[in-house]
């Protein structure tokens, strides 16, 4: 193993590179240059970019697990899932393209995967099936990942071109006969309010499924 560099240092540097230049600039070669080592030095720890993304996603999820552990248990599964979704989104938003790095990755730390155990214990004790508990976590995760990817992409695009999402330009482009679409476009509830509303819809769907 190459001396003087650790997997933890690699992941920290990779997250810094992600924040500075984004997902598309994240390569093993660029990371090695930033660490002032040869690319071969990194291959002792990560064999390719996918393994690097696995480690980065695992670190983000490790922080999610720590943050979630500090949240007092709620009154039931709905509070638990809402807290999970909010913590997940918060951690993703700390990093440029934070949600993108999660998609398709494999968690490499068993302690992170075990984060679900106390949730599953509480829910199955109250009558849930394990399959329903697993589906619920997957649904909230998928929703949050998708929401934050869109949220971050729009934010970055608007930063590069402030007129890109101009409501006035959009209304003029739509022309006549779309008053309700225009009204919806002027709600201006992106961010926290929109996330909470959409998360509530997801949780309502889970509750309806449980009632059947």
From TrEMBL:
InterPro entries: Homeodomain-like_sf (IPR009057), HTH-type_TetR-like_transc_reg (IPR050109), HTH_TetR (IPR001647), Repressor_TetR_C (IPR004111), Tet_transcr_reg_TetR (IPR003012), Tet_transcr_reg_TetR-rel_C_sf (IPR036271)
Alphabetically ordered keywords of this record: DNA-binding, Repressor, Transcription, Transcription regulation
Ranges of residues in domain HTH tetR-type: 4-64
PANTHER family, A to Z: HTH-TYPE TRANSCRIPTIONAL REGULATOR RUTR, TRANSCRIPTIONAL REGULATORY PROTEIN
Superkingdom, natural source: Bacteria
Entry-linked Pfam families: TetR_C_1, TetR_N
DNA-binding region coordinates: 27-46
Organism this protein belongs to: Streptomyces tendae
Gene3D superfamilies named in the record: Homeodomain-like, Tetracycline Repressor, domain 2
Membrane spanning stretches: none
Name assigned to this protein: TetR/AcrR family transcriptional regulator C-terminal domain-containing protein
Keyword Transcription regulation: yes
């Amino acid at each position: 193993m190459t001396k003087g560099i650790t997997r933890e240092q690699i992941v920290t540097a990779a997250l810094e590179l992600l924040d500075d230049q984004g997902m598309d600039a994240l390569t093993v070669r660029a990371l090695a240059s930033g660490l002032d080592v040869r690319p071969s030095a990194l291959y002792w720890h990560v064999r390719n970019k996918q393994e690097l993304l696995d480690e980065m996603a695992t670190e983000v999820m490790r922080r999610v697990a720590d943050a979630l552990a500090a949240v007092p248990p709620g009154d039931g599964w709905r509070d638990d899932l809402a807290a999970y979704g909010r913590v997940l989104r918060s951690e993703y938003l700390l990093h440029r393209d934070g949600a993108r790095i999660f998609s398709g990755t494999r968690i490499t730390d068993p302690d992170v995967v075990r984060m679900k155990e106390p949730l599953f214990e509480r829910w199955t004790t109250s009558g849930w099936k394990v399959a329903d508990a697993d589906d619920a976590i997957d649904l909230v995760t998928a929703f949050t990942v998708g929401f934050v990817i869109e949220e971050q992409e729009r934010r970055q695009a608007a930063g590069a071109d402030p007129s890109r999402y101009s409501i006035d330009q959009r209304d003029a482009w739509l022309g006549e006969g779309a008053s309700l679409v225009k009204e919806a476009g002027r709600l201006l509830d992106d961010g926290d309010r929109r996330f909470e509303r959409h998360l509530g819809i997801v949780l309502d769907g889970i509750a309806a499924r449980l009632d059947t």
